[in-house]
Amino acid sequence: MRPISYSRVSDVGTAIGTVAADPTSAFLAGGTNQVDLLRIYVEQPRRLVDINDLPLKQVEELPGGGLRLGGLARMSDVAEHPTVRRRYPMVSESLVLGASPQLRHMASVAGNLMQRTRCTYFRDTEVACNKRSPGTGCSAMEGVNRGHAVLGTSECCIATHPSDLGVALMALDAVVQTESPAGQRSIPIDDFYLLPGKTPEREHPLSHGELVTGIDLPPLPVAAHSRYIKIRDRESYEFALAAVAVAMSVVDGRITEIRLALGGVATKPWRARAAEAALDGAPATTDSFTRAAEAELATAVPHGMNAFKIELAKRTIVRALTEMTQREGSA
Amino acid sequence: MKSQQAVQTTPTPDSAVVRGPDEVEVRLRVNGENRRMSIEPRVSLLDALRDRLDLHGTKKGCNQGACGACTVWVDRRRVLACLTLAISCENREITTIEGLADGDALHPMQEAFLDLDAFQCGYCTPGQIMSAVALLTEGHAGDDDEIKEWMSGNLCRCAAYPHIRAAIRRVRDEQGGDRAAH
Hints:
The complex is a heterodimer. By secondary structure, chain A is α+β, with helices and mostly antiparallel strands.
């Protein structure tokens, strides 16, 4: 790790003012991804501004029925929060199925959204990577890419976005609250994540010094009937090969409301809009689920070793919808 | 949904106190004692504990947050010392394996690990024990499946997992079940 200087701040204004004024600085929250990236020289700020004392750890009711997760609320606290578990079970499940208990105590939900890909080539400063060093090329295209994305890729980058929480937030149409010296902004979650395109180094529409202060979950009754299913190489403490966040309402055998998002297979948390369109109003049957899965993965692009993810994603969608239907039916 | 319209605020420009990058005095409270050391801000809590405070119980395994050997408590929550900067722990309460026993009396979890042979090489053991005690506080040791899931952040290359779970079950049952360890 390069030498760094350190500041600890206790209010949002000082935090964003300090980072915005110093291009070589970065916020430090839970540090679980950042300290690792500092140690392997992938991120090289000269100064860390520790924001852990900022008053952004609360989970609060919003007027109108939504819920605000403070940016610095820890993954473990949000996962265990009774209101989150009752009204947004997929959010709680996506958190509990991520990382380990120790890391969940450390990592903030804002940091979870901002975490970087675990692509091994991104993490290896000896090799080409367009995301880490723009213009150098993508080593994953012809490399060991079993874990890489099949949706949302570009000729520049096929790195998978690692967040589980982001997938649940995408299904919910969550809104990211930020603050910078220019003021406060509300950014819909789908706009908060950028596709790699020709600029894979740019992952969020944030300015330097712009801080994620909170995440708003909208009032959404169907979210109480939701879950997060994660398929991986081992059953715990592992990133997704394929994951599905689903909220669904079935009335008289027909799907009356559906929200579906995918993780582990795309360059950003992936809203499965094609699948949603196929499912909306359709009978809640395996045939419908299979057609929806086919529709969503129709544009998938394999890169050799990760070709299996296309079928795996389809099966995970069908399984998630089947299990939701059975649970709704027995409820 | 709120609009995208920016609301003007007046942040204080770069007024934060800068420490480092050279060595600075850092004060930590470890196992109930106040400790001072001169370290660079980049030093991890793990290295500060082992190299500056001679508390070698906390182990360095992967040094990248994958193995759990460095598990300690910060403000009584289990965390990974390798991914924590020591300087960020000022004004926090740090507990390591050395702080678990009550004088010469081992913590019940330490006793259980000894009695039930819950280790072979022992390298992961301090992290396992710090995690196991915290697990009971957190209330996720209801059955073996739950223990497996909530201990998954602590790897054991000797695969002593069945005995580790037995030790956790014993302390859980002795202390009146889940959530009753403290």
